[in-house]
Every structure is written in C-alpha cells, then in structure tokens.
Write a structure and sequence with these properties.
2 strands
C-alpha cells in the first residue's frame, strides 16, 4: 500500500510518490466531477456514476458523410452579446473608447425636481441620548433557534422576531372582521359570499373596514426614528378613524376626490396595491380561523367586485354603466369551466384576474364618445362595425384589447406579421393586402378618419412587405407579393390605359412619377436638364431607402433591388399562377415609372430572359386550351400579361425596344403570335385574344420608333387577312367581340405607324444619297417603302364606311368606336404622308381628298348622331367637370395613380359614351385635308357652327385653371388635343370665310387659356398657338371694329363719375399725354413684333420642342421614348404674358450681382419691354378675363421690374406711357379690392424684400418721378403689412423728400390709407417725429403728409380705453403738439377734420375745436388755454 506524503518531504519525494502511483495503476481515491455549464445547457453536465469511457470502441465509418449532423432548418448563427459588446478595432484609440463608455453624472441625474415641502409640518427632532443608528446587544435578541436547526445570523433572528410580532398583532383584527370589503368609500352594494348576510346599511358597509381595523394598513411608524414609533402610528390611526366617523358620506366623497386630484397617479396606484396585499392577508387569516372548511375563491369575490367598482368610479362613468361593468367583470365559481379544488397543488390562492379570459365574452357595446373607436377588420379586409356581434368560431376574437369586439386592428396585424409561426405571418399579410385593396377602392372613405394607405406607409408597411419577400417560406412570399400588388397596381388604371392606347397620340403616356412639392422646393436651383437630372440621381443614391420611398415608393423599392428578388421567385421558386400574374403586374407598374426604371429592369440579370423563356414560349402543352383545365403552373405557357410587360418596357425608349427585339429574341415571338389566329392558339379564347392584341401593340410601339418594320413585308398576308375580316365585327356584342375590336384597333394602330415610317423613307433616302459632310451621321431609311403601304387605304376606307353606317345604333357604335377612331386617324396620317411623296401626282391627291370629302365626311357631318356628339362634349369634359378627374380618396403622394379604381362613369372623357376620341380623330383628319387642299376649307365651316361645340368652348375657357395631378394630366392631354384641332381649323377659316368674325373672340380666348394649360410633351402645340393664333390680328377683331375708341370713351365715362384715372406725369422732358385708345392702336399695329419678341424668349424650350415636333409630325426615326416628360405643371406659367419683363430683370440683376455696371440699355431691350407692356395692356383691355387667374399683387410685382431694371429705363416715353396706362387699370376699385400683398405670390419669395429693393432704387434713380412714386405709395395702404410703412418712415426717410406725387395725380383714394385709424404705437411715433422734424412736408410728399396728419390727429384725440403705455404716449404727443413752434403744423394736427380731395391740402380743418376736444385738450395740458386758442383761431 502506498504511503501518504508527510510534512517535511521535498518536491523530489512528491515526484517519486507520483511515479510509484502511476506504475501501480491504482484506482484514485478522488474523482473529478465537472459542473454543468449554464451557457451550454445539459450538454456541459456529466454524471458522476457514468463509467469511464473505454478507449477500444467498435466504430463504423461511412465515407462521404460529414462528422456532424446538418441542421434541419436554416437558422441564423448565434451571436454572443458579451462578445459583440467588446469588439474593438486595432487602430482604435483606447482613450477614445474609454471616453465613449464614460457616462457623466448628468446621464443619471438628468432631471431633478425638488419635492414640494411647503405644506409639510416642521417638527423638531426629539432629544435622546441614544446613538444613531441605535445600537443593540445580542442579548436583546431572543434566540428562537431550535435544537438541531440551522444556525441563523443576528440579523436573520431579528427579522424573524419582527415578522412573528406582526403576525401576532394582525391575527386579532383579522379574526374580528366579518366580511372584507374594499377601502373605496364609493363601493357599490355589497355582494357577499355564499352563506354571508349582507350588512344592514351602506354606511356600515363602507366603514366596516376602516372602523374595525385596530392597526393602520399602510403606516408602520418605522421612519419616525423613536422607540415609541408604533404607538405614535397607532395614535394617528385612531385620529383618522375618529375624523372619518364624524364626516358624512358626501364629505368623504369630496375629500377623496380632492386627494385623488392632488396626488401623483403613480403614488395612488402604489397605495392601492399595498392595500390589496393587506386585504389578501386578512382574508387568508379569516379563512383559516373562522371558516376553514370553505374554498378560497368564495371569499375574494367581494374584493374583486369592490376593486372593479373603484376602477369604474375613477373612470367617471355614469351609475348605470358602472353597474353594467360590475356585472360584466365579476367572476363566480360557476363562470369557470373547471372549478379549482383545495387539494390541488398551488391552487390554494385562486387568481381570478388570470382566469378572466376563460369566461364568456360580454356582448359588444359601442361607446358613446366623441373620440373615434379603433378600426377592426375581418379576414377578408372588411371593416367590422363597432357594435357587430359576431360568433367566436369565425376566428376574429383572438386578441387581448377589446376582447369582446371581433376583428383585428392594424397594430395587431403588424404584430402578427412578425410572428414565428408561418401561418400567422401569411394570414396577417393576406389580411393587410385585402385591406389595402378595399382602401384603394374607397370603401373606407366614409367610415374612417384619415387615409389607411398613408397610415400604413408611415408605419413601415412597404418595408414589411419587402422583408417578407425575402422569407424562405413560399406562402409568406405569395402573401407579400399579393399585398404589394394591391398597394402599387390598379387594374382599372391599366384597363383605361389600354383603352386609350389607340387614341390620337394615345401610345405616349406620362410616367408614373409622383409629383412631390417638397422635392420641387429642394430643387429650385436652375440647372440645365442634364446637370439637374444627374444631380438628382446622385442625391437619391446617397439617401437612405426609407427617405426615398417616402417621396417615391417605386424608386425606394428599386433601391432595395426588388427586381432581383422577383426574378429569383419566378426562376427558382416557380410559384402558382396567381403569384406569377401579380409579379408581372408589379413589374409592369415599375416599368411605367420612368425610363430609368426600365433600364434597371433590363439590366437585371436573367429577369427578361426568364420571363421570355417561361411565359412567352413558342410551344407549350395544348391541353391548357381544353375546357375546365386547371392551371397549376404558368411556367412554360404563353401569358398575355408577360407580353404586356414587354410592351410597356419597350415604351421606355427606342434603345430598350432594340434590346428586346434583338438581344431577347422578341422579334421571333412577334412573328409567332401575330401570324397565328387567336382561335388556333392553344389557350383559352379570351386569353388567346388578349395575347394577340398585346403582340400587335408591342409591334406598334416598335414601329413607332421605326423598328421591326422588316416584319411588315413578311407578315403582310396576315395583316391583309385581318383587314378583310373587319366587317365581320359588325354582328353581335359579347366580351369576345369587344376583345376582337380591341385587337383590330391595335392592328390599325400598327399600320398607322408603319405608314408614318414609310412616309419618310424617300426623304431619308435622299439625305443618305446626298450625304453632306457637314451633316451628322445620316439616319438609314427604314426597310419599308411607300409602295408597300399604299394598298392599305382601300381596305380601311371601305371598312370605315360600313362602320359609319351603324352610327345611329348606339350600342353597336359604342362597341365599334375604338376601331372607328383608329381608322379615321389612319386616313389622316395616310393622306398627310401621301401628299409629301415625290412619286405621287399632286392633282391626284387633291382629287382624292375631294372625293373623300363629298362621299364620306360631309354626309357624316350632317348625321344627327354627330350633332348629338358635339352636345356631349360639355357633359364629358374634364375641364367643365373637374371632379371627374379628381384624386381618389385613398391617393397618396408617393404612389402615382390615375384614380380609375371602380371605373369611370359613362359620361366622362374616357367613359363609354365619350365623343372625345372620335371627334378628335375626325378633326385631325379634317385639319390634314384642309392643310393639303385649302380650297376645301369652306366645306367644313359647319364644324365651328355646332351649338354644342360653341357651348363647350365658352364654358371650358372660363373655368379656373385645372389642378395638374397624375390622375388628371393624362385625361386633360386628350382634351387639349381636341381644342387645338378646333383652333387650327379656325385659323384656316379666319382668312377664307368672311362670316368667321363672329367666332374670333371666343377662339382667341380659348387659345390664350390653352397656352397656359398645355402640359409637357405638347410643346409643339404651344408653339403653333403662339405662332399662328395668340398674336393673330384676325382673332382680335376689336382692333378693327372700334376697340381703341371704345376704350377712350370708357375712360371719359369713368372721369365723369369722379373716378381717378388721371395718369401720373413724368420726371423726364415734357411728354405729350396720350389716351389709352392711342396706346391700344399702337399695340395692335405692333402685333407681329410682339409675337417675335415672345417667340425669342421661349427659345429655352427648343430641345423639348424638337422632341414634341417629332412625335406630332410623325417622324418616328427621331422619337426617343414613348414616355412623356414628368408632369410638374403646365409648359408655360400662368403669368407668361410678363415673361419677357421677368427675363430681362433676371438678366440685369444677375449681371449686377457679378459686379457689372449697366449704364445704358441697348435699343432691343427697350423695345422688348415696350412690346411686353403693350401686349399686357391689350390683354387687360380686351381680354381681361384671361388674366384673372393672376393675382393683382403679382401683376404689380411684375410691373415693378420696369423700375428695378437699369437706371432710367422707366423714363423712356413708350415704357412710361404704357406703364402709366396699366397702373390706371390696376388702380380701379375692383382691382384695388382684390389686391392682397400679404398672401404668398407665385414666383416671388418675399414681397417685403422686393419692396425694399424698390425703395432703394427709388432713392437712387427716381428723379422724383410721379409714376415711380405711385408704385412706392401703393403698398402703404392701411390694410397691408405695417412693416412696409415702418420701412419707409423708419429706415428710408430719404424717400419722403422725393415722393412728390401731386394729390390730383394720385389714382388711389386716400381713405384706403387713413381708415381704419393706425394702432401701431411705433409707427405713430415715427409719423409724429417726421412731421415735427420736418422730414415730412406737404410740399415734398403731400400724400403721406395727409396720411400722417390724419393718423396723428386721430390718435391724440382718441379717448378710448386702452393700456397705460398707449394712454401716456397719447397725452405726451398731444402736449408736444400744443407746444409746437410751427404754427401751420400745429394747426393741421389739432384742427384736422376729414379728407377732402378738392382741397389743396387734401383735408378740411375745423374753424374751432369741438367742445369735447377742447375740454380734453385743457385737461391734458392743464393750463388756461382759452386766450391762446382764440389767438390761434384768428
């Protein structure tokens, strides 16, 4: 046996003993047991009884298998909180890391509020000889440790003795309690347990708890610091009881209410919780001592009832409602499905609050409150009424708040969407998608306050869907795709865009870019187009995704690379058909956003290849066409939605179309789906028709760029066969017929663009053959010649004649109207290109047009049905009915929408009964005919005579400017096309038809209104209106029919009615006065020069004008994109008549800002300003309603630019005369009443800053010019901002010496300056100071002298009750006036009576002061002033 080591042995001896032990291989006497690692769970623990592991094991090795088992479900790697908290980098400074973790004391004590001790009684500490804290000897502690028990510390023994004493003291009071009630004095009628008798009175019941308690419930007296602390607490308790006994029930209630109002709610809650704990202890003791045989729950019912009644009392409910809630909350044994028993473990104390959910739900009751209730929705997204009583088996009651109400709130659905249970996440996303779908349909507009969509987006709904798209579960992905489609896509919008595709210029559409005013304000800097777009793109790239999505949802989604995720779902996940269609709709909406979005979709790897390969295959299983076939997957089957997505993507630009046709092999797909008849395609009938229609539309888009025209010759037999079958569409009406009509319209639209392309083949061929070296790289001619399309006209004209025979049959006509419209447009394009072909005989062309006019168009115009169409223009107009294109109730600014959800009414511009598409196409054809054959113009004079057209035009131009939104721009654009063609026809008739003069004024008003309304993309139309209509003397018959003379006669009549129309004089050399009629006559004669002036100032629109001309003139080889420019507003601003003046002012101010000095202005600038003023004067006189949309203040601000430009520009004779004439117009009573300088003005940041600039310019270069002075005096009227008057009398008093505008030449009544009396004390002091110091004199500035005297006189003699400061200032000013040395000023200030325009002074004086004023003057001056007053009167 081995010996143990002994004391004194060395280390060598220990090593020797170790070697002996190891050599003997003996069993060790000690075993090492590893404790369980808490971080590793059970794996770290070892069993001491487990035998040691054997080294020799029979191990089976399997090649190719890993040593560790793979995880069954992918899970994120575990992260250590401690490790992540201690990560630091090598280059990190330790000192900085310590400073970052250092928390100053202010981080802990950030807000220290001193306790209010004003009401606390101050008590002097009781003197004692004991130490603090009191010491005690261990002999004072009675040891209660029993033999054999565990030893206790002194502190533990003391605490045990204290608890035993408390139990002994509490046992008698608990035994005396007969029934335990709540401490609330307003408890309801007692509800006792079984076998308990109710107390005799409510007062006895109320006091039963307080008066029978021998000890205080909350106060123990430990904090008093004295030996007799318990006795003092007991004395306080007795005093409280005596006071309660002496008080009545009403007094107790009042005192309780006062205490609850004063105390902190958290303190009240703490006291209640302590009271409840004490009551629970008393109930337990009572049960054990008095009734040990009964169960516990019967004793706590009264407590629960009292507590519930207390909470309802505090909520302030009425008595009946309190009783109802008391009955609702109370729980009995019978309410529980399982009754607890005494012998059950841990069921000795039943917690009814936790078991409340097990009882039946109460009936829902709508709270009668002014505050709205929380909205709850069903699983289908329907809004559930607040008082709806639905059964619980529907699964709508699984929530905690308002458990009795069925349905889920948005907050609960958001919470459910983050659940770990897949079914719950899926259900939440599906319900949210249904809610969004119904919200966009407007179902909640009348029921809910606010916008559901805006609330969801602000709560992060968009990124919730985006995160859900990345979920690995297919059901969650499908639900998120459906919700995203409901949020972004409106199928009705797509329906109406397809409906207008074949209209005139219907292929072009506005991008779905939201119009955000906040972004516009941030991008006010003037860049050119390229710099601005690049700066904006860089700015968006640097913004976080949520910030971008807040303004533009689609752009925010593209920043999250959503296209890559959707490609993955289509390619890898391969979801069910419904999800595939939703994804295609989402991609289509994204493609409509902008050309940049189209480029990102095209650049997404394998996205387009996947869609073309999987959903546009050339072959698929023909079983899908069998009736009743159930689609389980759309992969490998042709889909119309995929073809539509490719078509919308091609509309993004000609480069995108070329990539689709060549790189992605869409040209072969076009041949496949165009060549085969829809009846032969192995698809369901309607789907095959839609697929063929979308194929033709895609081909039409490509032909709109001049591409894919080589397919025309290959598929010519197919197209001819379709044209030959057009008359077959006249029979019957069914959904298939409507789809067939849409397909036929798409075919004719394709042929229209192919014809346009072929019309310029000869021109491009000639340019290519000449090939001048100076020219840019020549454009190759398209592979289609005019001879290949010349044979299409007979087919379409024959079909059109047959269709027009059905015009009297309303239903058939409405069905065939899309095809009729496209046929008429084709004829207009055909004859326009036909007349330009070098191979065509011009005589043959003219004869062909005469035949078309006599055989088809003139009989058509005489049809009663066409007459009724003109009458429908006004009811269907968007201008006359602005509500027809208003935003939807649930529209949000970050998602562009056409607001077509639910469909448009039949009597609307895009409705089924709208005459706009057909009449626009008819006017387009007539304009092309009259342009080619001017001799036929008189044949169509009846068009302008239709009463319905005249009523429509008269109503449309008089309406206010329409609001330009995404929901109105696309509709207004089509209406403006019709108006333009009417005006173009009127321009041709103005020179040929002698009786046209009766329509000239109406058409000129329409043209002027149209100029300020045309939207981006229609720059060509605006240029044509400016060139041929706006400044055309034929449209201003007043210039020939005595208009100038009528203006002079009107001025004479105004002068006879005592109106001030006298024009101010000039500071320059003598200028002969001219009448307004003379100025108008000069303006009328200068109309050609005025037109050239405006055209030169709109040269900045030249790049967009070139793109617009290419579209409207049919030059397909120059069109870059079918997407129109973004809509930020009309092309020209509403104040475009002032544009040359504003442009000149900007140039001069920019030059001065760079340091250049403009001593003289060139002649062309003087002419520019003159022509601008002449045009504005002409419009204000003969077309005053046109400029009504511009505020009078804005007009005056524009005219001020005349004085702010250069130094002496306003002294030029023509400029001075026209400015004075315009000033007399703006100083008429109606214009002055509408003048508002305090409202924000368009195009002006601050009128105050502009006025300060005007004052500085007046001080420098005015030369005392009266006209300039009137512009300075106009803003000083009493009803405008006092800061303008303070600027003149405070900072710019030098202007008072030069404002010598005579009272007889001042066009504004002085009453507008003196009424009501001035109440600004600072301004009154400035008035008085300038008068007393002589800075303001009647000889220098008569207008402001009268104004200042009137206001000072009104102030010093005012006896209205006011503040002490104003009264003291009033009396002080009166005393100073009485002591004035200047007798004239003193007389004016004291004896002022009222204004008088005929008086040389401008006002009348009292001969002597009225008695009331005289008495007040005596009181204030406190002197005998009778003699002085008489001397002053003399």
């Amino acid at each position: 046996m081995l010996s143990r080591p002994k004391p004194g042995e060395s280390e060598a001896d220990l090593l020797h003993f170790q070697n002996q032990f190891l050599a003997a291989s003996a069993t060790p006497a000690v075993k090492i047991v590893k404790k369980a690692d808490k971080r590793k769970g059970k794996e770290g623990s070892t069993n001491a009884e487990t035998p040691p592991l054997q080294d020799n094991k029979d191990v089976v090795m399997l090649d190719g298998f890993p040593d560790t088992l793979p995880a069954l479900t992918p899970a994120p790697p575990k992260k250590s909180k401690i490790k992540s908290a201690s990560v630091h980098f090598e280059d990190e400074d330790p000192e900085e890391r310590l400073e970052s973790h250092d928390q100053h004391i202010t981080a802990l004590f950030s807000k220290i509020i001193e306790r209010d001790t004003s009401t606390v009684a101050v008590t002097i500490p009781v003197p004692t000889g004991d130490a603090f804290p009191r010491t005690f000897h261990r002999s004072e502690i009675k040891s209660e440790v029993q033999l054999g028990s565990e030893r206790k510390s002194i502190f533990a023994q003391k605490m045990a003795a204290k608890r035993a004493a408390e139990k002994a003291a509490a046992a008698p009071s608990a035994a005396e309690c007969v029934q335990v009630r709540s401490a609330a004095p307003d408890a309801l009628d007692p509800v006792g347990s079984a076998g308990e008798a109710p107390l005799p009175s409510s007062r006895g019941d109320k006091d039963g708890d307080f008066l029978t308690s021998q000890r205080p419930c909350l106060i123990t007296g430990e904090g008093l610091g004295s030996q007799n602390s318990e006795e003092e607490a007991q004395a306080i308790h007795k005093e409280n009881l005596e006071k309660l006994q002496s008080m009545s029930e009403e007094e107790i209630l009042q005192e309780q209410a006062r205490l609850l109002a004063q105390l902190d709610p958290s303190l009240v809650a703490f006291l209640k919780s302590q009271r409840g704990n004490n009551e629970g202890q008393k109930k337990e003791l009572k049960m054990e001592l008095n009734r040990p045989g009964e169960s516990v729950e019967s004793l706590s019912v009264a407590e629960h009832s009292a507590r519930s009644s207390l909470s309802m009392q505090e909520s302030g409910l009425e008595e009946p409602v309190r009783k109802e809630e008391n009955m609702k909350v109370e729980i009995m044994d019978d309410d529980l499905p399982v009754k607890p028993r005494k012998e059950w473990i841990h069921m000795d104390n039943v917690e009814f609050e936790k078991l409340e959910w097990m009882k039946d739900l109460p009936s829902p009751r709508q709270k009668k409150t002014k505050k709205g209730m929380q909205a709850r929705f069903s699983l289908k997204g329907e809004l559930i009424p607040a008082d709806a009583d639905l059964p619980t088996h529907l699964g709508l009651h699984h929530h905690g708040e308002e458990a009795e109400r069925a349905g889920y709130s948005l907050q609960e659905l958001f919470h459910l969407s983050r659940s770990q249970v897949t079914q719950q996440r899926t259900l939440a996303l599906q319900v949210l998608g249904c809610i969004v779908q119904r919200a966009r349909a407007g179902e909640f507009a009348s029921s809910l306050k606010g916008s559901v969509l805006r609330l969801l987006l602000d709560a992060g709904f968009l990124f919730l869907l985006r995160f859900s798209l990345d979920d690995a579960v297919e059901n969650v992905m499908a639900a998120s795709v459906g919700a995203l489609r409901a949020l972004l896509v409106s199928l009705d919008d797509e329906k109406y865009l397809d409906w207008t595709f074949s209209w005139y210029q219907g292929m072009a559409a506005f991008p779905f870019v939201p119009n955000n005013e906040e972004e516009e304000e941030e991008e006010e800097e003037e860049f050119n187009g390229t710099e601005k777009s690049q700066d904006k793109k860089l700015k968006d790239e640097n913004k976080p995704d949520p910030d971008v999505a807040r303004y533009d949802v689609v752009k925010g989604l593209l920043k999250t690379r959503i296209q890559h995720r959707l490609r993955y779902i289509l390619e890898v996940v391969r979801p069910v058909p419904a999800v595939v269609l939703d994804i295609l709709h989402i991609l289509t909406h994204i493609a409509r956003h902008s050309s940049e979005a189209c480029s990102q979709l095209l650049d997404c790897p394998r996205l387009i290849e996947t869609i073309v390969r999987e959903f546009l295959p050339t072959q698929w299983d023909p079983k899908v066409a069998e009736p009743g076939f159930l689609f389980t997957s759309l992969h490998g089957v042709a889909c119309a939605s995929a073809m539509k997505f490719i078509r919308v993507l091609a509309s993004g630009g000609r480069n995108a179309t070329a990539r689709l046709l060549n790189t992605f092999e869409m040209k072969s797909r076009l041949s496949r789906f165009v060549a085969e008849d829809p009846l032969d395609v192995p698809l369901p009938g309607e789907e095959a028709m839609r697929l063929s229609t979308e194929a033709f539309r895609l081909w039409a888009v490509a032909a709109g760029y001049g591409q894919a025209c080589d397919l025309y010759s290959d598929l010519y037999p197919v197209l001819v066969r379709i044209l030959q079958s057009l008359p077959e569409l006249l029979s019957g009406k069914s959904p298939v017929v409507e789809l067939a009509v849409q397909r036929a319209a798409a075919v004719v639209t394709l042929l229209t663009h192919v014809t346009q392309t072929a019309g310029y083949t000869a021109e491009l061929q000639a340019k290519l053959s000449s090939n001048n070296s100076e020219d840019r790289e020549p454009i190759p001619p398209p592979p289609v010649a005019w001879s290949q399309v010349s044979g299409l006209q007979p087919f379409l004209e024959t079909s059109l004649k047959k269709i027009l025979q059905q015009i009297s049959q309303t239903e058939t006509w409405q069905t065939l109207q899309p095809l009729t419209t496209t046929c008429v447009i084709f004829l207009g394009v055909y004859y326009s290109a036909y007349s330009q072909q070098p191979s065509v005989n011009p005589v043959d062309c003219l004869e062909e047009l005469e035949r078309l006019t006599s055989e088809m168009l003139q009989p058509l115009l005489n049809q009663p049905a066409v007459d009724s169409m003109w009458d429908l223009l006004r009811p269907c107009s968007a201008l006359c009915n602005p509500m027809s294109c208003s935003l939807a109730p649930e529209s949000v600014s970050s998602i562009a929408s056409l607001s077509c959800t639910g469909g448009k009414p039949p009597l609307s511009l895009v409705g089924s009964k709208s005459p706009f598409p057909f009449l626009t196409a008819l006017l387009f054809l007539i304009n092309n005919i009259t342009h080619i054959h001017k001799g036929l113009t008189s044949k169509y004079s009846s068009v302008l005579g239709f009463r319905g057209l005249k009523d429509y035009l008269h109503q449309s131009w008089q309406t206010g400017p329409p609001s330009v939104t995404s929901s109105s721009a696309w509709i207004l654009r089509h209406e403006y096309h019709l108006q333009y063609f009417v005006l173009a026809l009127a321009r041709r008739m103005a020179g040929t038809c002698p009786d046209y003069t009766q329509h000239a004024s109406l058409h000129h008003c329409v043209a002027m209104a149209l100029l300020s309304r045309l939207l981006p993309g229609s720059e060509h139309l605006a240029h044509e209106v400016l060139l041929d209509l706006a400044f055309n003397p034929e449209f201003l018959p007043e210039g020939k029919a005595g208009g100038p003379e009528a203006a002079d006669f009107s001025d004479i009549l105004h002068l006879g009615s005592n109106a001030k129309l006298a024009q101010p004089g000039s500071a320059a050399a003598f200028l002969p006065k001219v009448t307004r009629g003379t100025l108008l006559r000069e303006s009328y004669q200068n109309l050609p020069s005025i037109r050239s002036c405006y055209l030169s100032h709109f040269v900045h629109l030249q790049p967009t004008l070139m793109r617009s001309q290419a579209s409207y003139q049919g030059r397909n080889y120059l069109i870059q994109s079918m997407l129109l420019p973004e809509v930020r507003g009309p092309i020209l601003p509403s104040d475009w008549p002032f544009f040359p003046l504003i442009s000149l002012y900007n140039k001069v101010t920019n030059a001065e800002a760079r340091g250049a000095v403009l001593n003289s202005l060139p002649l062309d600038l003087i002419n520019t300003v003159t022509w601008n003023l002449q045009w504005v004067l002409l419009l204000e006189t003969w077309r005053s309603k046109i400029l009504q949309s511009i505020p009078t203040a804005a007009k005056l601000a524009r005219l001020m630019c005349v004085f702010l430009t250069g130094s002496d520009l306003f002294l030029e004779a023509p400029i001075h005369r026209n400015t004075a004439a315009l000033l007399s117009v703006y100083c008429q009573s109606k214009a002055l009443d509408s003048l508002n300088l305090d409202a924000p003005l368009p195009g002006l940041a601050s009128f105050h800053d502009l006025y300060i600039s005007l004052l500085e310019q007046f001080e420098g270069v005015s030369f005392g010019d009266p006209l300039f002075g009137v512009f300075v005096l106009l803003p000083l009227q009493k009803r405008f901002s006092v800061h303008l008057r303070l600027s003149v009398f405070g900072e710019h008093t030098n202007t008072l010496r030069a404002l010598g505008v005579p009272l007889q030449q001042f066009p504004v009544p002085l009453e507008r300056y003196t009424s009501p009396p001035e109440d600004n004390l600072n301004l009154l002091r400035l008035y008085f100071r300038t008068l007393v110091t002589g800075a303001l004199r009647h000889a220098w500035c008569p207008v402001l002298y009268v104004v200042a005297v009137a206001h000072v006189n009104s102030f010093i003699f005012s006896q209205e009750s006011t503040t002490q400061e104003i009264d003291a200032a009033r009396k002080s000013m009166l005393r100073k006036t009485w002591l004035l040395v200047d007798e004239n000023l003193k007389k004016h200030l004291l004896y002022y009576r009222l204004l008088n325009a005929e008086s040389p002074l401008g006002f009348d004086l009292y001969e002597q002061l009225p008695p009331m004023r005289l008495k007040y003057l005596q009181i204030v001056t406190q002197k005998e002033i009778t003699e002085n007053v008489s001397a002053l009167d003399s």
